[in-house]
Design a protein that fits this description.
Alpha-Beta Plaits; alpha+beta; 5-stranded antiparallel sheet; single chain; Chitinase A, domain 3; 495 residues
């Protein structure tokens, strides 16, 4: 058997295989196989001769069977002699298959891409640490006051930011329309929960007062019969409450926890903001290092790896919708999209995710980064606590495939941390960027300030370094990285 191998685009190989003239024996074997599985009147299974089978099945069926097995066996032998691991079944083209002549075929197969690293250490950027000043501390204090505000009846004209309960009746050409009536609807004036301009008409009313006005629905409104149409609303302001924030004083600080004075609260808020700023700086610096390494690397991805990552992202997206209580069919209908549209949107990010995966894996190889088995087991134990009750998922993580996925994720994380630590060691003048630590239990009061403490979420984990080690699809939670996707929401007509 002669085998010629030629590299092809998108990390594929073309194997051109030439076999000795073996069709006679292959045809005999094909006749025996077909005879055993073909019922022929007058013959026991496996006893029908070739001539009879050709009348029943046609001569092409026997030749196709012979060539298929001959080519399949030859391909397995040819690819088995190479180091590359096929990522999918080959596309086979039979070039010559005639009795008395060599059998020649070509097999095109995608293989794991070769990654040629460029520079990934000598970058000219530095970590950027946000400066925490008095104004940012004050913003957190104000946010905490807002979260601990109380609502009291307002004996004054309504203003934006007030909490209201309204009733309304909408008519179009004098007739009520679906969704245009409500007896008691709570809202915050100015949040624009209703159609644009509606809530402006509530400003200045007192509780118990009413107003009427004409207003046009947006031209792109979801209900076609109302889009761009002018309607009439009669609105009653049934209740009006104002938000009253607690004073920024020592009593307020004491109410939040172990803070004897307001100054003590400010000191603790500043400390936490500074710690979060260091965490963000390290995270953003890591992202920039990864982008730099990927930009300088050379690799040609096969379509199959990108396609697989697109499917992973689709599964993550389905999980996100499900956690929000949204059916995928309903989302696609509301957004007027198809699965193909989603996949087209996912594809650029999927390609980037696979590139990151491959480049980090190559860097880890060069840096000799490994993950001890004990750390893999510790991560599985943490997953057991996090996903209690989900026996299917826990079983997957406990399997060899799941362990390999966790090992790959930890190895990638360790690779990036190694590069960050190496840069910091080479620049002792730079402030330390400690690894993120678990949040202390007494952070409950400050943790609520999500508007300020908004560290960038991790990207969803790409597929495993070895395609056979991919984590399960579905919600695809992992112990090491969390998938993030977004789904829009919208408001219907008032009521």
């Amino acid at each position: 058997m002669n085998v010629t191998t030629t590299p092809a685009p998108k990390s594929s190989l073309v194997l051109e295989v030439e076999l000795p003239p073996e069709l006679t024996r292959a045809v005999e074997d094909a006749v025996r196989r077909l005879s055993r599985r073909t019922r022929v009147a007058g013959f026991r299974p496996g006893k029908a001769p070739r001539a009879v089978l050709e009348r029943v099945l046609g001569p092409e069926a026997i030749m196709d069977e012979a060539v298929e097995h001959l080519v399949s066996d030859a391909y397995r032998e040819a690819i088995g002699e190479r180091e590359e691991i096929p990522l999918a079944r080959p596309e086979v083209e039979v070039v010559q298959a005639e009795p008395g002549k060599p059998v020649i075929f070509k097999a095109t197969v995608p293989v794991r891409p070769e990654v040629r690293l460029g520079d990934y250490r000598n970058f000219n950027f530095r970590p950027e640490i946000e400066t925490i000043d008095d104004a940012k501390v004050a913003a957190v204090i104000d946010e905490l006051r807002d979260q601990n505000a109380t609502l009291t009846p307002a004996d004054r004209p309504a203003a934006k930011g007030d909490y209201a309960v309204i009733g309304f009746r909408g008519t179009k050409d004098g007739e009520p329309f679906d969704g245009g009536t409500a007896e008691r609807m709570p809202l915050i004036i100015g949040d624009d929960r209703l159609i644009p301009g509606f809530e402006d008409h509530l400003v200045g009313l007192r509780a118990g007062e009413s107003t009427e006005f004409d207003i046009a629905f947006p031209a792109d409104y979801a209900e076609p019969e109302l889009a761009g149409q002018t309607v009439h609303f009669a609105v009653d302001l049934r209740e009006l409450r104002a938000k009253v924030l607690p004073d920024a004083d020592d009593a307020f600080a004491v109410s939040l926890g172990d803070y004897p004075t307001l100054d003590a609260l400010r000191v603790d808020v500043r400390r936490r903001l500074e710690r979060n700023a260091l965490d963000r700086a390290r995270h953003d610096f890591s992202d920039r290092i990864i982008d730099y390494a990927v930009a300088n690397a050379t690799l040609d991805l096969p379509d199959i790896l990108i396609d697989q990552e697109v499917e992973v992202m689709h599964d993550e997206f389905r999980g996100t919708l499900a956690r929000q209580g949204i059916a995928e069919d309903a989302y696609l209908k509301a957004t007027e999209k198809t699965d193909a549209d989603l996949h087209a949107e996912f594809r650029p990010r999927a390609e980037q995710r696979v590139k990151v995966l491959m480049v980090l894996s190559k860097i880890a190889d060069g840096e000799g980064i490994t993950v001890p088995e004990g750390e893999v087991q510790a991560e599985i134990d943490r997953a057991g606590e996090r996903y209690k009750g989900n026996q299917k998922l826990l079983g997957t993580f406990g399997s060899e495939r799941g362990r390999n996925f966790i090992r790959s994720s930890l190895r990638r994380s360790r690779t990036v941390e190694t590069l960050v630590d190496a840069w910091l060691a080479a620049h002792p003048d730079h402030p330390a960027l400690p690894h993120a630590e678990a949040e202390p239990a007494d952070d409950a009061a400050i943790r609520a300030t999500s508007a300020v403490d908004d560290a960038k979420p991790d990207e969803a984990a790409p597929a495993a370094e070895n395609p056979d080690d991919a984590a399960p699809t579905g919600d695809r939670p992992t112990p090491t990285t969390a998938g993030t996707s977004g789904a829009g929401d919208g408001s219907g007509p008032p009521g």
